[in-house]
């Protein structure tokens, strides 16, 4: 799909860059970190009941013009468009997330592979996660600005594991190395917007990289981490809208039990 140059220019500027963008590893690392620190993972469109369709121009418009965040299909879909426009070789990867040690549904997460002199795992749509791309190699631990990660081969994919503060390795998701077209994620994208079994329909799920850690909102629980420091607190009805606006760029209000944009 062709996305107008003006949209890609606006998107790059939101990340603090000007096009043309050099298709090299240093630039990819810088763009990846800037994306996670600038554009939040957030599920406001699901709670606002704004339909999300798998359209890369729409993704870019939402991030660049409306200056919103989104969930994985939107964030990684838009980022792939920007990278491809700069000359990067990008492929979409299907992934399943872990929840208390149990793997979820196929296609519930979209990650990316970017091929330079070697392949890299790129993911700006998983919330607080690795700040820079990971080498697509299962041979060694990889140290990142926010922690240590490793890729572990399994019988049906590759696990992305993160070493937590207690020293234990925890698997966050499993991806299939076989590239997939964007439309292959359509059924799961629809499911995650509407099903009672979706984690996105019942409360806030927001995250943005910040300092040496991240700021995350689960429902009304705000978690702020920075290195080894971690603070958690529950937000009151009065505090929640201000936090959504100031930390995640979501302007909202509650109307008859449903979250709606504050300017609607």
What is shown here, in short?
The chain is an alpha+beta fold and about 260 residues long. It is about 25% helix and about 35% strand.
Low-confidence stretches: none
Main β-sheet: number of strands, strand sense, barrel status? Answer: 9 strands, antiparallel
The total strand number stands at 16
Judged by helices, strands and strand pairing, the structural class is alpha+beta
What is the H/E order? Answer: HHEHHHEEEEEEEEEHEEEEHEE
> What is the number of helical segments per DSSP (H or I, 4+ residues)?
7
- State Rg: 18 Å
Average residue-wise pLDDT: 94
* N-end to C-end Cα span: 31 Å
Percent range for β-strand residues: 25-35%
Shape verdict? globular
Helicity range: 25-40%
Structural overview:
It is a single chain. By secondary structure, this protein is of the alpha+beta class. It has 7 helices and 16 strands. The protein is globular and about 55 Å long. The chain starts with a helix and ends with a strand.
Layout of secondary structure:
Blueprint: H1 5-14, H2 25-38, E1 41-42, H3 44-48, H4 56-64, H5 72-85, E2 89-99, E3 102-103, E4 109-115, E5 119-122, E6 134-135, E7 142-144, E8 147-154, E9 157-163, E10 169-180, H6 186-194, E11 205-210, E12 213-218, E13 221-226, E14 229-234, H7 239-248, E15 252-255, E16 258-261
Antiparallel strand pairs: 1-11, 2-3, 2-4, 2-10, 4-5, 5-6, 7-8, 8-9, 9-10, 11-12, 12-13, 13-14, 15-16
Helix pairs in contact: 1-4, 4-5
């Amino acid at each position: 799909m062709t996305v107008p140059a003006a949209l890609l220019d606006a998107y790059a500027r939101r990340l603090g860059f000007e096009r043309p963008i050099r298709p090299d590893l240093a630039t990819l690392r810088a763009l990846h970190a800037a994306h996670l620190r600038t554009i939040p993972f957030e599920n406001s469109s699901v709670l606002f009941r704004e339909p999300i369709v798998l359209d890369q121009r729409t993704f870019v418009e939402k991030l660049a013009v409306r200056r919103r965040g989104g969930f994985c299909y939107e964030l990684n879909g838009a980022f792939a468009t920007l990278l491809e426009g700069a000359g990067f070789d990008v492929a979409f990867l299907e992934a399943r997330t872990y929840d208390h040690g149990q793997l979820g549904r196929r296609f519930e997460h979209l990650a990316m592979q970017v091929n330079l002199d070697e392949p890299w795992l790129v993911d700006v749509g998983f919330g607080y996660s690795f700040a820079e791309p990971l080498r697509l190699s299962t041979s060694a631990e990889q140290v990142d600005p926010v922690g240590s990660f490793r890729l572990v081969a399994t019988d049906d994919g590759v696990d992305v594991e993160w070493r937590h503060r207690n020293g234990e390795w925890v698997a966050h998701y499993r991806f299939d190395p076989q590239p997939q077209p964007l439309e292959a994620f359509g059924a799961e994208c629809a499911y995650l917007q509407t099903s009672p079994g979706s984690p996105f329909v019942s409360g806030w799920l927001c995250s943005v990289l910040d300092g040496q850690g991240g700021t995350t909102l689960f429902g009304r629980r705000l978690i702020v981490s920075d290195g080894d420091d971690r603070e958690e607190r529950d937000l009151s009805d009065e505090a929640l809208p201000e936090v959504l606006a100031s930390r995640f760029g979501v302007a909202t209000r509650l109307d008859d039990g449903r979250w709606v944009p504050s300017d609607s």
